[in-house]
User: Fold Metal-dependent hydrolase from Natrialba swarupiae.
Amino acid sequence: MMATTHVFVGLLVAAAVAVVEPAFALEAGVAAILGGLFPDLDVAASHRKTLHFPVYYAALVVPAVALALAAPSGVTVAVAVFLLAAAAHSVSDALGGGHELRPWEGESPRAVYSHYHDRWLEPRRWIGYDGSPGDLALASVLALPALFVFDGFVRTVVVGMLVVSIGYALARKAVAANAERLVE
Ligand SMILES: [Zn+2]
Assistant:
């Protein structure tokens, strides 16, 4: 799935927070954007491994959400939403395509690395690959609640990310071909 799809998943949670407690809307929205993007910063290291923790982020979500409920503040809510978004990102990477240059060929057995299991999880391919038509459709639907709930900065980011997602999906195979040429 695209990094933007992961962000929109996190923003579903943030939108719910914003509806329940509008005072924390901005913190929740920004935390969802950062948490959804964060794992993919490892493209510069070992992608889908260095910053992807499908089990450990999820384990941290439990105390973080408990703390946010017990002592609600901008910081505790932001930490909980950040971890939720990062956990959803890491887990859902296993539902898409494999980690390979042309994931539509479906040859890689590696979706995301689980440090807890000490091995790569296999791609389920429910969503064909990042930037596939299904991924773009999913991203568009997931972005809708955030578009209605947020205004200002968060809404601007959502619109920008939708534009980037459409461009990426349209250019997805050309991007792979160019990357291949670069490697050669
Ligand atoms: Zn990822």
